[in-house]
Design brief:
The chain is mainly beta and 121 residues long. It has one helix and eleven strands; from the N terminus they run E-E-E-H-E-E-E-E-E-E-E-E. Strand 5 and strand 6 form a beta hairpin.
Length: 121
């Protein structure tokens, strides 16, 4: 069974940084590209970033380019999302997903339970 477990969310002020982690089983981590999505209050789940299984390819939604960085820690079977210069509009539940580098939820096969990120003005 594939399990993805997110951590690292919290309450911060605008301009602060947070680092989200997504822990996966070794096989899941090795065999799948991974992505991060987020869902704000009253909004649909949206793509944030994705990384290929090798880590050589990454992509981001325009609104986070230059502020967020996705990476893979192979030693820990973990995908990281470093979020800098956070804005109130980044407030959302952040979800880790496995299976694609696409930008739609339908392209991903596995999902974590989500971690809350709240950015105060």
């Amino acid at each position: 069974q594939v399990q993805l477990v997110e951590s690292g969310g919290g309450l911060v002020q605008a301009g602060d940084s947070l680092r989200l982690s997504c822990a996966a089983s070794a096989r899941t981590f090795r065999d799948h590209p991974m992505g991060w999505f987020r869902q704000g209050p009253g909004k649909e789940r949206e793509f944030v970033a994705a990384i290929s299984d090798s880590g050589a390819y990454t992509r981001y939604v325009d609104s986070v380019k230059g502020r967020f960085t996705i990476s893979r820690d192979k030693a820990k079977n973990t995908v990281l999302l470093q979020m800098n210069s956070l804005k109130p509009e980044d407030t959302a539940v952040y979800y880790c997903a496995a299976g694609s580098v696409g930008t739609t939820t339908q392209e991903y096969s596995y999902w974590g339970q989500g971690t809350q990120v709240t950015v105060s003005p």
